[in-house]
Design goal:
By secondary structure, this protein is of the alpha+beta class. It is built from 3 helices and 8 strands. It has helices at residues 3-51, 222-246, 249-272, and strands at 65-71, 76-83, 95-96, 107-112, 133-138, 141-152, 166-174, 186-195. An 8-stranded mixed β-barrel has the order 1-2-3-4-7-8-6-5. The chain is elongated and about 75 Å long.
């Protein structure tokens, strides 16, 4: 086989394996990562709730757990919500948009969740019907919301809230036709009204969020980290090849394979942050 042909085959094989890995990670392994993060976040928030140290408002560190959601109609129990809605935040579960009030408080609290990758926690929220309940627990107590309905872009907005009203809006993505199950391209909303009176709002909430934390936005800032991970991957692969040629033996593979997999995992995780945050 000519050298040029062999090189082309090697490039095509590498690209094919890379594409297969991205698909495997996106639709299977990312869910395992989200499940592990949810377990750790639930333990952390449960301890904070017991010690009365859970966040109540003000400035909350992105990625910190702020609430637990239960949706009986979807058989969803103890789903932890983190602060922040950037693509990286939503890899751990649903995220609370930082320029809105926390659930249970007066006003509209907005929660984002993915529909395809990283466990797809909001994949089925469009099947909710009016009257279905959503229960949210925060550091200020347990709150029940009744679903008003599903809303899409261009449809009428909910009525303005009264002085003693609260609303919860769940946001995810959806698609149509052949790409519906794997490449959603638009936002969809589920509005729910608070049952009972809202609780006070602590001061200090952000009044705006960066573009990366808005619906269907990727995180361009992840590109820097991705370049560093890819550089680390090349360095590790080169080191493994050099060690294999120089020393050979199973010791090289025993040390090298986990290091390569770690770099591949980290680079893939950051690469997916460049995609829309609700996918």
């Amino acid at each position: 086989m000519p050298v040029g042909t062999g090189f082309t085959v090697w490039i095509l094989l590498t690209c094919s394996l890379g594409a297969l890995w991205v698909l495997l990670y996106s639709f299977a392994l990312s869910g395992l990562q989200e499940g592990r993060d949810q377990h750790e976040l639930y333990s952390q928030l449960r301890e904070q709730l017991g010690l009365a140290t859970a966040p109540l408002g003000g400035v909350v560190e992105p990625g910190a757990p702020v609430a637990v959601v239960q949706i009986p109609a979807l058989k969803v129990a103890d789903m932890v919500v983190v602060e922040g809605t950037a693509a990286g935040d939503l890899q751990s579960g649903p995220g609370h948009r930082r320029d809105t009030v926390l659930p249970g408080q007066h006003g509209t609290s907005v929660l984002f969740g993915r529909s395809v990758t990283f466990g797809a926690p909001f994949a089925r929220i469009t099947s909710l019907r009016p009257g279905d309940t959503i229960t949210v627990t925060t550091g200020q107590g347990e709150f029940t919301y009744l679903v008003d309905g599903v809303r899409r872009i261009g449809e009428p907005l909910p009525a303005a809230l009264g002085a003693d009203d609260g609303r919860l809006t769940l946001v995810t993505s959806e698609g149509y036709g052949w790409q519906a199950g794997w490449a959603p391209n638009r936002s969809v909303y589920v509005d729910a009204a608070l049952k009972g009176k809202p609780v006070p709002i602590p001061a200090g909430r952000p009044h705006a969020v960066p573009a990366a934390e808005k619906a269907m936005q990727g995180n361009a800032g992840a590109l820097v980290g991705l370049v560093l991970w890819l550089a680390a991957l090349l360095l590790v692969v080169g080191s493994v090849v050099w060690a294999g040629v120089r020393w050979g033996g199973w010791q090289t593979w025993l040390v090298g394979v986990p290091a390569v997999l770690a770099c591949v995992w980290g680079s893939t995780q950051l690469a997916l942050q460049l995609l829309p945050n609700l996918v």
